[in-house]
Design a protein that fits this description.
The chain is an all-beta fold and 114 residues long. It has no helices and 11 strands. It is globular.
């Protein structure tokens, strides 16, 4: 089982990035999927999650700016990030969970310059 994240990079404040995560060895449609992030010196936090039934949750700081989605045909998940702020700078991790199963991607760095 592997989750492969991509799409991070350097962007100016107010810009946009789209993160993607491809699953192999598992069918993401069966899992609750999410994006977490960890900034330097801080704990990892949940940014957004989409449940198998389609409902979504977002941390308050990204509501209205980030959108999580899944593409079952491609077995991928994405995080569209708009109006980026310097405080969004972090390593972003994709995650899939079902019951006690937990899988993590390798992390992709997002740096937002002011």
């Amino acid at each position: 089982v592997q989750l492969q994240a991509s799409g991070g990079g350097l962007v100016q404040s107010g810009g946009s990035l789209r993160l993607s995560c491809a699953g192999s060895g598992l069918t993401l449609d069966n899992y609750a999927i999410g994006w977490f992030r960890q900034a330097p010196g801080k704990e990892r936090e949940l940014v957004a999650r989409i449940w198998s039934g389609g409902s979504t949750n977002y941390v308050d700081s990204v509501k209205g700016r980030f959108t999580i989605s899944r593409d079952n045909a491609k077995n991928t998940m994405s995080l569209q990030m708009n109006s980026l702020k310097p405080e969004d700078t972090a390593v972003y991790y994709c995650n899939a969970m079902y019951g006690v199963e937990r899988y993590w991607g390798q992390g992709t760095l997002v740096t937002v310059s002011s």
